[in-house]
Each structure stands twice: as structure tokens, then as C-alpha cells.
Write a structure and sequence with these properties.
3-stranded antiparallel beta sheet; 4 domains; 8-stranded antiparallel beta sheet; 15 helices; alpha+beta
């Protein structure tokens, strides 16, 4: 028979596990909706490696459940009060880390690395992620071009674009070093947790992840860029996807194999660990593709909105198709695109209407961020505030082949019961004077403001 104390302990632990699952479930659902299972798979695999064979405290670890529950509760309350999902996710990570520490009786040092590993479930702000991705993309393009020029290859760089004899390849922010940075950091955290070394050496191993991710991604992109400049698109796409999946587990395994000590038959043990890891990761990839295929028909595709006028101040509009991949990335609640032609026949303006019912999601997809993520160079960025909740951004976006003027009207409504955000993007060539482009866009905005949803 269990005593009352034991029953109370089991009940409190069960309740904390339940709350942990409740806090983490939205994040895992978000990964599922984005069809990006590889990140949580690597995170939980890394956590398992940290826990496996870790040094336990002989007298039993000191209980941190109560202070951890209090801290997690504060994060959760702040998250719900401020409507910041990431704070709720942090509360779940705190609880999960301490519960695993109690279950596996691991020491405090290992617990810190376990917490840092699980903390990577919390996505960094989209603006920071995009900025970091753009920086990596430009750096990698610069490294690749510098190496190629050292061997007298006729190649130049424009932003994150690589140009060779008229052929152009772009390194998007999603394909830059950030793609491999998180797996490299996870592998480095596992290695640091297992090392019997000073904190400085462990920190050096963690920092090693940055140049490792950069080096391997330059190699990966080098192969893709060479193929892109010399091979058909089908071959390029196939190798691009294959190398992405291949290098992610590879960059994760390298720090573990290089720096993790093993007590018995180290070389054999490392080989077995690497083999088992690749097998588990392959199963994760298989599950990812199964779920992606099952949900493929759920990808949104927005039809034109006939309630919006096709004739505005003499301009005549015509519906344009939006690429399915762009629709998926924007994940808008309402999306359509038209090209409007001026009665003189000398001007064409591409208009894209984007509405998100989630204001936060809309802020992550501003025109400036999207152009930078695609490898365009943004310059002459200017803002014009129309009110507390609306503004106009206008800037020049350039790639190697041409430049264009972009004007974006954005309006945000963040009310207690309902929030929404609207972005209307206007794109014209730079042959049109800036004041004329801005004037036409403002006339469109005033006309569209009379229709619902704007």
C-alpha cells in the first residue's frame, strides 16, 4: 500500500506532466502545420542522448520541482496575459527539463545542457531569424565566389546571388547556414553534456557549431550552385532536397562523434550510435513525408476576390495566379493578386492583397522581409505613418537582372476578441518617378478602403 505522501507525490508529478504536455502541445502542432518535423525530432533525440548514460547523483538530486513549477507558472501567466505563445512554451520547457531531471536523477550540470537543448523548441523571433538567414546567405555567397575566383572562375556576387556567364543562382535565407546551425548546436550541446572537461572547453565545443554549420553549408550550396549554373532544373531540385536532408543529421553527428567520450570500445560505440541515430532520423523523415502527403490537399489556395474593383481611376485589373509555394509560405487567410494597367498603356502595377487574422503572423511577412529572404537587395527604405494602426513602406528591391519599386500599405487591428492585419503590396518598375508610384498607390488605397476588410 502506498502512503499518503507517495500518493500525493505521484499526483503532483502526474499533474505537472499533464501541464507540461498542455504547454508544449501548441508548439508541436505548429511544427506539424509547418510540416517541419525534423527540428523537434532532432531536439528530442538530442535530449535522449544527453539522458542516456548520464552521471547520476548518488544521494538523489535535490528537488527543484517546486521552484521550477513557480517559475513556469509565472511564464505561463505572462504568456496568457500578454498573448505571447513563446512564454507559454518556455514554461513547458522548464517543467519538462525538471521532470526529466527528477526521473533520471541526472546532476545539475547535465540538467543545464538538457534545458538548453529543449529550449530550442522555442522558435526565435521571425525577424531575427530572417535577418540571421540573410546575413548567412550573403556571407556564404561571398565565400563561394571568393574561392571560385581564386581558381580563376568567371563568377561574381550581387547580394546573395551568384552570377556566372549570365546564369544566376540565389541563396535564399531559408537555405543559408541557419538550416544547419540548429542541428549543429544540438549536436554540440550533446557533446558538451557528455564531456568531462572544463566549462571553457565545453563552451568552445558549442561555439564550434557555428563555423561547422557555415563550412558544411558552403559545401552543400557549392554543389547545388554548380549544378544550378550548369544543369537542368529537375536535377538541381532533386539534389537540393537530398543534400538538405543528408547534411542535417551529418552536422548533428559530427560534434557528437568528435567530442563525446565513451568508456567501452569507443570507436565501435560511436559507429553504433551514428548508425542508430541515422536510422531513427530516417524513420522521422519517413513519418514527415507520410504526414506531408496526407495533408497535401489541405494546402490553401486562394481564389480571386471579385468584390474588389477591376477598374480603379482608369486602371484596368486582371487576375494573376500565385505560385502554390508562395501561398503556402504566406499562409494568409485571404490572398489574391492582380496586375493593373494604366489607360495610357505605358504603366503596369502588380497588386497583391494579403490578409492575416493573426497580426503576429502578418508582421512576419512584410514585403521587406520577404524580398530580403528571397535574396533581393533592399535599399532606400522609407516609412510613412498614416495613423496609429496603418502605414506605408516604400523601397527599392534589386537583384542582378533588374530593380523595381515596392510600396506596401499595412493596417493592423488588434482588438481583444478579434485581430487582423492587411497588407497591400504594389510593385512597379523604376522607370516611373517615385512620387507618381506613391501617388498611384495612395489612390488605390483610398478606393479599396471603401470595400469590406480594408
Amino acid at each position: 500500500m502506498r502512503s499518503r505522501t507517495q500518493k500525493a507525490h505521484l499526483f503532483s508529478n502526474g499533474l505537472l506532466w499533464l501541464l507540461t504536455g498542455f504547454a508544449l502541445a501548441p508548439a508541436l502542432l505548429a511544427y506539424q502545420q509547418d510540416q517541419s518535423f525534423e527540428t523537434p525530432i532532432l531536439i528530442f533525440m538530442s535530449a535522449c542522448f544527453i539522458l542516456y548514460g548520464s552521471t547520476t547523483e548518488k544521494s538523489g538530486p535535490r528537488s527543484y520541482l517546486l521552484p521550477a513549477a513557480c517559475i513556469a507558472g509565472l511564464f505561463a501567466l505572462a504568456g496568457y496575459g500578454l498573448k505571447i505563445d513563446k512564454l507559454i512554451l518556455v514554461s513547458g520547457v522548464i517543467l519538462l527539463s525538471v521532470l526529466l531531471q527528477q526521473t533520471y536523477r541526472i546532476n545539475k550540470s547535465t540538467s543545464i545542457f538538457l534545458f538548453l537543448c529543449l529550449l530550442m523548441l522555442v522558435p526565435i523571433p521571425y525577424v531575427l531569424q530572417t535577418s540571421l538567414g540573410v546575413w548567412f546567405a550573403v556571407l556564404e555567397a561571398d565565400v563561394f565566389v571568393s574561392l571560385a575566383q581564386a581558381f580563376n572562375v568567371p563568377i561574381i556576387r550581387h547580394g546573395s546571388q551568384v552570377i556566372s556567364e549570365g546564369a544566376v543562382a540565389t541563396i535564399n535565407s531559408d537555405c543559408s547556414g541557419t538550416l544547419l546551425l540548429w542541428p549543429a548546436l544540438l549536436g554540440a550541446l550533446v557533446a558538451a553534456a557528455k564531456m568531462h572537461a572544463s566549462p571553457y572547453k565545453k563552451l568552445a565545443v558549442i561555439l564550434f557549431a557555428v563555423p561547422l554549420a557555415l563550412l558544411l553549408n558552403v559545401i552543400r550550396l557549392g554543389v547545388v550552385l554548380i549544378l544550378h549554373l550548369n544543369s537542368p532544373a529537375g536535377i538541381v531540385d532533386a539534389f537540393h532536397d537530398f543534400l538538405g536532408w543528408f547534411f542535417m543529421p551529418l552536422v548533428w553527428l559530427i560534434p557528437i562523434v568528435l567530442f563525446t567520450p565513451f568508456a567501452v570500445s569507443a570507436p565501435q560505440q560511436k559507429t553504433v550510435i551514428a548508425y542508430q541515430s541515422l536510422m531513427v532520423f530516417s524513420v522521422g523523415i519517413l513519418l514527415h513525408f507520410i504526414v506531408s502527403s496526407a495533408n497535401a490537399h489541405n494546402n490553401p489556395y486562394t481564389l480571386p476576390d471579385t468584390t474588389f474593383p477591376y477598374y480603379i481611376n482608369g486602371w484596368v485589373g486582371e487576375d494573376m495566379d500565385i505560385p502554390t509555394e508562395e501561398v503556402r509560405i504566406l499562409d494568409a487567410d485571404h490572398l489574391f493578386r492582380r496586375i493593373y494597367r494604366h489607360p495610357s498603356g505605358k504603366r503596369e502595377m502588380l497588386m497583391t492583397y494579403i490578409r492575416h487574422d493573426n497580426v503576429k503572423k502578418s508582421r512576419e511577412h512584410s514585403s521587406k522581409l520577404c524580398f530580403e529572404a528571397m535574396g533581393w537587395v533592399v535599399s532606400d527604405h522609407t516609412k510613412k505613418h498614416l495613423s496609429d494602426t496603418s502605414k506605408i513602406d516604400y523601397f527599392t528591391a534589386s537583384n542582378f537582372q533588374f530593380s523595381q519599386g515596392v510600396i506596401e500599405y499595412s493596417s493592423f487591428q488588434n482588438q481583444r476578441k478579434k485581430s487582423s492585419a492587411i497588407r497591400i503590396q504594389f510593385v512597379e518598375t523604376l522607370d516611373i518617378v517615385a512620387d507618381e508610384r506613391l501617388g498611384a498607390a495612395e489612390n488605390f488605397i483610398q478606393t479599396l478602403a471603401t470595400f469590406k476588410g480594408t
